[in-house]
Amino acid sequence: MLQSERMRKVVITVPKSFLDKTINELYKLNAVHIINHSKSDLDIGNPLESASKISEALIAARSLISNLGLAGSMELNNGFKAIGVKSLSHLTKSLKTLQNETNLKLEKAKQISDEISSIETKKNILFQLEKLGISVESYSNYSSITVLAGYVKNPDLMKTGLLKETDEFEMHSSSGSGFIALFVSNSFKDKAIEVLAKHEFSEFDLTPVKDIKGKPSEAISALLAEHELLQKSKLAIQKQLARIGAKWHDFLLLSEKFLSIELEKAEAPLRFASSENIFVVTGWVPAKNLVKLVEKAKKTTKGNIEIEIKQPAHDEEVPVKLSNTKLAKPFEFLMNLYALPKYAEIDPTLFLFITFPLFFGIILGDVGYGITVVLLLLYLSRKFPSAKPLARIIMPAAISSIFFGFIFGEVFGFEELFGYSIPHLISRVHQIQEMLIISIAIGLIHINLGLLTGFINELNHGLKKAILAKGSWWILQLSIGIMAASSEGLLPVPMYAGGILAVVSVIMIYLGESVSGLTELPGFFSNILSYSRLMAVGLASVGLAVVVNGFVEEFASAGGIMIFVAVIVGVIGHTLNIALGLLGGFLQSLRLHYVEFFTKFFKGGAIPFKPFGKITKEAAET
Amino acid sequence: MAEAGLVAIGAGLAIGLTAIGAGLAEKEIGAAAVGAMAEKGETFGKGLILTVIPETLVIFGFVMAFLILALAE
Fold it and tell me: Residue B24 burial by CB count (10 A; 0-12/13-18/19+): exposed, middle or buried?
């Protein structure tokens, strides 16, 4: 609970003849986090012979899936049987046949698409030429004349400009669009281009239509007919492809999954150490799975196996798998968001499970809001299963909201309903001072819990280190308590006694945590004061609710249509306030853990435990 | 009565000015933190911590506001 899953290091040595079987067994067990072997005196292993064939088939399956636009994921239960093939070569053959079939169709579809786009280009050109009214063939096949077609800013101005140079040309223009066709003698071509450039000429390429004859309008209608035919055949091919996709959907997705798994297995030897006759797998196993691993491995290899089991060494990088009770498990999400605790550290998920809802409840303590959030969460987790992990975190928080709603005697910001005041233990609207003191007291307890956790963590480095690094903060707090008490005359001790103690504690902090500890000194007090947000953010939330209720009462007392307005204002106002309260409660509470609490003990940064094996749904989530 | 008004203004300034200060500081840190997160999602925890560090200012302002209000009583 307070510790992550205990791990053991295993070194498994097996003869090469059992390589396939051992890999299969390890994969099925899904319990060994393999440490990749880096080349040393022992070489890394070679992938299984089947690897290249598998990856070839996998590429075929993946390209088919993407070409046919398939999507989704399927559960794979029993290998080849589920796919409906007998062997890998059978599967490869089926995939190849399917690939050839679809490739032909895809090529055809592409060819048609190309033709369609070429027709569209031609059509666009012809639409322009239609404005000039000359037959299409007259634009090409000249030996002594150059044809220049395109847009200029002002055709008339351009023509006058060109006339100054030569009159050996003929120009057709369409009024309005600025489209011109200029037929000019080859000898004046350069001159003409010069003049055109001055008039912002942008040339229009006529080569696509050089084989078309007759009037532009006739050519256009011929093209349109062709276009329609091509569209039809394109649609037909697309339909055929969709039919293939629908028919082979399951087969392809299952094959892809199956082949990915097989490829991972086939490439596993790359992570092992290997010699001529044996291979060695090094990895981490949860201690509770150890017996099963040994038993299964022995059975698979008929006893031809050597398993060495070691305790994790002090400075070893052990992969971490959090292990919490069912209720606290969702809160591992918040740990993953921050960092995984190191193997030797205390896993604070259980603290989060208790104090996170507590803080959330104090901030958003309102029976009405709490019930609304609970109902909302029930609806959301039924409607969107992907929201479930988050809902499982907020649900205890919302229940705690209801609980604190009763303590504060608040329902939707009201402290009284129908003239009766709601019973309460403390009113956070009217007893602000008390709430402030309670908040800071909670902070003091929470931070000291953090220090205690840190103390236990530091015990790994010895008692002296733990006392210097963490115990010193308790002495500091004690010294401040003594100073405060003696200045109030509550203790028969002079104030400087507390002062001396304070100096001692600061020296201890320096010895324990060096300079970084000293820089935390002012932070320590602001950390404790920071918990006053429990009261402040909550007060702001109540304040907003009271304002909304004030509006509602004002409108409702006006009567008539205004009652309707009052309802709308009330619903919108409280919805907004709940949204703000959820966000505020969640973030502020999370922050108190991440910033104030965790910094007292948490180091984190472990690598997550990733066993070699089937990726189950649960593992994929985390 | 006039004095009570001044006390209220003082309390308001204590919290308002510290909030502006914290906002100015958090603006820059937040932008950088979001940038880091876009590059590397795992930095969320660190980013959040760094972003909220200046919030302490408001907390101090808040406490001061209460001490000032206590003067009025």
Answer: exposed
